[in-house]
Specification:
By secondary structure, the protein is of the alpha/beta class. It is 39% helix and 20% strand. Strand 4, helix 3 and strand 5 form a beta-alpha-beta unit. Helix 3 packs across helix 5. The longest helix has 20 residues. It is globular, with a radius of gyration of 18 Å.
């Protein structure tokens, strides 16, 4: 079977920090390529505002501190929640904590209730994407340029310097399910493009769009790593399985079914797949995945090495 970079995507919600730490350490030890968190104030889907949910930047910093090999990231930070200059500084700090393993994802946000409840405006999608575009430009410059000057509708920087610079290259990811503008932003600004919960067929369609947008931007598409998040429901059945509208972007059934589904993403042209966990996490079933599925797609190369 062809190589596929398999990671895990762990929402820091409805779970204790002790459980998260144990899962992260086991995935790091087992040879997964990537671990990421997500950026929400409420657990989602929203069932109760009292359900525990840890903040994204602090969670990613903790992830970096307790692992040794995996790439560490967030898919994705909401561009509207933080000034991009502040987020660039945070990402740089996390990269130093990790010894150069940090990656930074940005998206436009979608969870309307948390915007309203925490005092953020929730503009129409087009405006959120406009703000994301400016945030990507600002963040990329701060991470790579000696000095950043920027004047836009949402942000203005004058002689801003991000020092120290990252240990390695903190690669910038664009993430989202959008069919048009999201791939276009990835083609212009990103080092990675992540698509959440898409079937292999839909992911292949987005890749076609990414290729077309790269041609428009005179960008080599080979410079952009691509991945998809898939819901992890192996060993589950009935009501505990994936919602119907996300079923094509989920792993269900046996280890062999997982191998077949992941192989379809390889055939579609994806570089990586991240297993998205929602509690409760069946650790025995996860161990079966490590034993039965992971070796099919990973060789002995150190996971964090690109």
């Amino acid at each position: 079977m062809a190589q596929l970079k398999i990671g895990i995507h762990t929402g820091p919600q409805n779970v204790s920090m002790e459980e998260l730490l144990a899962l992260w350490r086991r995935a790091d030890e087992a040879g997964f390529h990537w671990i990421s968190v997500w950026d929400h104030f409420y657990a989602n889907p929203l069932q109760s505002r009292q359900d525990p949910c840890f903040e994204g930047v602090a969670s990613m910093a903790t992830l970096a501190a307790v692992t040794e090999r995996v790439r560490v990231g967030c898919l994705v930070f909401c561009a509207l929640f933080r000034n991009p200059a502040l987020l660039a500084k945070a990402a740089t700090t996390i990269d130093h904590v990790s010894g150069g393993r940090a990656e930074l994802g940005l998206g436009a946000g979608w969870f309307e209730e948390e915007f309203h409840d925490f005092g953020y405006d929730f503009p129409p999608l087009g405006e959120r994407l406009d703000q994301l575009e400016e945030a990507l430009e600002v963040t990329r410059s701060l991470l790579r340029d000696e000095e950043t000057n920027f004047e836009g509708r949402y942000y203005e920087l004058s002689g801003a310097v991000c020092s120290p610079k990252p240990v390695g290259d903190v690669r910038l990811w664009v993430g989202g399910r959008g069919r048009k503008r999201t791939p276009a932003l990835a083609a212009r600004f990103a080092d990675g493009f992540n698509m959440p919960y898409l079937s292999p067929e839909d992911a292949a369609e987005r890749l076609d769009t990414l290729h077309a947008e790269c041609e428009k931007s005179d960008r080599d598409v080979a410079e952009i790593e691509t991945s998809v998040n898939v819901g992890y429901y192996l060993g589950r059945a009935g009501a505990s399985g994936p919602p119907e509208h996300l079923a094509g972007g989920a792993l269900v059934g046996s280890s062999q079914q997982a191998i077949d589904h992941l192989g379809a993403y390889v055939d579609a042209g994806l570089d990586g797949v991240n297993l998205a966990f929602r509690p409760p996490i069946d650790r025995d079933d996860f161990e079966r995945f490590i034993d039965d599925v992971l070796p099919v797609f990973h060789d002995d190369e150190e996971p964090g090495v690109k």
